[in-house]
Each structure stands twice: as structure tokens, then as C-alpha cells.
Design goal:
Layout lengths: L15 E4 L3 E7 L3 H6 L14 E7 L5 E9 L5 E6 H12 L8 E4 L4 E7 L1 H6 L9 E4 L2 E5 L8 E7 L12 H11 L35 H9 L5 E8 L8 E4 L6 E10 L5 E8 H5 L3 E3 L2 E2 L1 E2 L11
Antiparallel strand pairs: 1-7, 2-5, 2-6, 3-4, 4-5, 7-10, 8-9, 9-10, 11-14, 11-17, 12-13, 12-15, 13-14, 15-16
């Protein structure tokens, strides 16, 4: 597994504020809001307080991810789930089917909240210092969630009602922000890769996306079996490619060019050309030779965090 940074990649100044129009918000209201969503996702929401956020997945009965979220609790007690906008409508429909007698109301609140990404010096100038990953801070109507850094640069998610004045700072293009998402190694599920992975294939157990001590949720048995029976054969890696990649694209091994050995999960244009991507790969293929996508060789980059070997 790579341990040294690639010398071919440029150093980019990642400072500023990006508007995140590609994300949407599901709002859960009612006295059973936390209890209800706790039974549907891979993370613990029953114990969620106002100082923490959650990375979580919504899985099928077969343990395959149908959506991923950054979940948080507002001071009002409402639960907000931030996800890729292209998955919001079908995910909201699926989750609503499980409400039954729970005192919880789900709605698309994307038009009610503004979302921005803060990077680098914007965090100190606009809000508060970077703190531990997935920690959360509320002040006035605004909420800040500390995200995984990109190349050592701290990042935060800023969320507030749309009538709130947006954060001020140097503009950061959305394409650059999406690149920082890839470089953080924390993938957000989008439509092209729905039901393609169990959470561990995207390293979710290592980045705070799975709680193995909580109760049942859809797909829980499959997720637990993958972890504790040693059946996991795929992991997520960060790569660079001279060609432009996109989510859902297949990855091949030069040794076995006719059989895909992985899938592009998330990709963004790299500042120095080509693209960087998070790819889910067969572990055997990583160890056995060059990897190809879009007829171009992939360069494995350092994974920005350690994988948990023992839960």
C-alpha cells in the first residue's frame, strides 16, 4: 500500500468558501426522529448529541449502500441528513416506507437550508478552529461540522437556513471542493454506484460510518458478517489518472484485462490535469500489477487515514 505522496501532483492552495449545490437535505421532525433513523442507518443516532455529527449509510437488506449521509441534530431536536441531491428523492421515498407508527415526519428540506464548504484559512476567519473529525458546533442559526482534511488542509461543512447570511471569504470553486472530497478519501454515494458496495468496501468502518455495537438496521447482518468473518475482499483507495474518470466506471488489471477488478466511486478533475478518484478495488488486484481505467494507468496515492484492522 502506498505511503509516500506522489511527486507528480501539484501543491494547491485550498482556502476559501464553496457553495455546495450538489447536496440536498432530508429533515426528520417529531419526538421519534432520532429513534426512527437510528433503526435505519449504520450509525448510532439514539445517542447523537449536539456536539457530534454522524457519517452513515442506508443499506438494502443485502447490505448494499443505497445512500450515504452526514447526519446531525439541530438544537430544535430535528435530525438533518445531508446527501447527494441525485439520491434524495428515491432515498426519502424508501425511508418514508419504514415510518409506520413512529412519530416522525420526513421531508425534502433542500430549499430551506444553504450548504457551504469551508477550507483552510476560511475556517479561522469565518467560524471556529478545526476540531476532531465529525465534531459539530452550533452558533445562532448556523451549524458547522468538522470533516476529514484534504492533504492536511482542514475542512468544514457549514449549514444554516437559507435566510441566514452566507459565510464570507475567498470563493472556492465547486470543482476544487469536489477534488478535496476525493483527496479526503471519504466517498459520498451518488446514483451511478447505488447498491454497488457494502460499507466496508468504501472504508466506512474506518472513517466513522459504521457502529458495530448498535442494534438492527436493514442489511446489518451482512455488514457485520463482512467485518467479523474476514470475507471482505475490496477496499477503497485514492488514485490519480491522466484521463478523466467518472463514478461507476470500471477498473481493470493489466494482468486480467477482460475482467473488472474495481469501480470508480467518486472522481474529480485534478488541478494539474487528469483526475483523482476514490476507487473500490479487489485487494488481490492491488497487489498484483498495474491497474487501468479509461485505457489509462492508475497511480495509487497514499490513503489519508489508517484502516481499522480490529474493531
Amino acid at each position: 500500500m502506498p505511503t509516500e505522496p506522489s511527486p507528480t501532483l501539484p501543491v494547491v492552495a485550498l482556502h476559501g468558501v464553496a457553495r455546495l449545490d450538489h447536496l440536498g437535505v432530508i429533515q426528520i421532525q417529531g419526538e421519534d426522529a432520532a429513534k426512527f433513523i437510528h433503526g435505519q442507518l449504520t450509525q448510532d443516532f439514539a445517542l447523537l448529541d449536539l456536539n457530534s455529527a454522524r457519517l452513515a449509510a442506508f443499506c438494502s437488506a443485502k447490505g448494499r449502500m443505497q445512500a450515504s449521509f452526514i447526519g446531525l441534530k439541530r438544537p430544535s431536536g430535528d435530525i438533518l441528513l445531508v446527501c447527494s441531491k441525485d439520491l434524495l428523492a428515491p432515498t426519502l421515498k424508501r425511508l418514508s416506507m419504514f415510518v409506520m407508527r413512529a412519530k416522525a415526519r420526513l421531508s425534502d428540506a433542500s430549499a430551506d437550508f444553504a450548504l457551504y464548504g469551508l477550507a483552510g484559512n476560511a475556517i479561522n476567519e469565518i467560524a471556529a478552529r478545526a476540531d476532531s473529525i465529525w465534531s459539530k458546533l452550533d452558533f445562532d442559526a448556523e451549524t458547522l461540522v468538522n470533516l476529514y482534511p484534504a492533504d492536511g488542509v482542514p475542512r468544514q461543512l457549514w449549514l444554516a437556513p437559507v435566510e441566514t447570511s452566507p459565510p464570507q471569504g475567498s470563493p472556492l470553486g465547486l470543482e476544487t471542493w469536489l477534488w478535496t472530497e476525493v483527496r479526503s478519501g471519504v466517498p459520498t454515494l451518488t446514483q451511478p454506484v447505488v447498491e454497488a458496495f457494502v460499507p466496508q468496501m468504501l472504508n466506512y468502518e474506518s472513517i466513522g460510518g459504521v457502529n458495530f455495537k448498535k442494534g438492527c438496521y436493514p442489511g446489518q447482518e451482512v455488514v457485520a458478517r463482512s467485518q467479523f468473518r474476514g470475507t471482505l475482499k475490496r477496499r477503497a483507495f485514492v488514485v490519480h489518472c491522466p484521463a478523466l474518470l467518472q463514478a461507476g466506471q470500471e477498473v481493470f488489471s493489466a494482468q486480467y484485462p477482460s475482467q473488472p477488478v474495481g469501480t470508480v466511486v467518486q472522481a474529480a478533475m485534478a488541478p494539474g490535469g487528469g483526475s483523482d478518484a476514490i476507487v473500490s478495488l479487489q485487494l488481490a488486484a492491488v497487489q498484483n500489477g498495474p491497474l487501468l481505467a479509461a485505457d489509462s494507468a492508475l497511480e495509487l496515492l497514499p490513503l489519508p487515514y489508517a484502516l481499522l484492522e480490529d474493531i
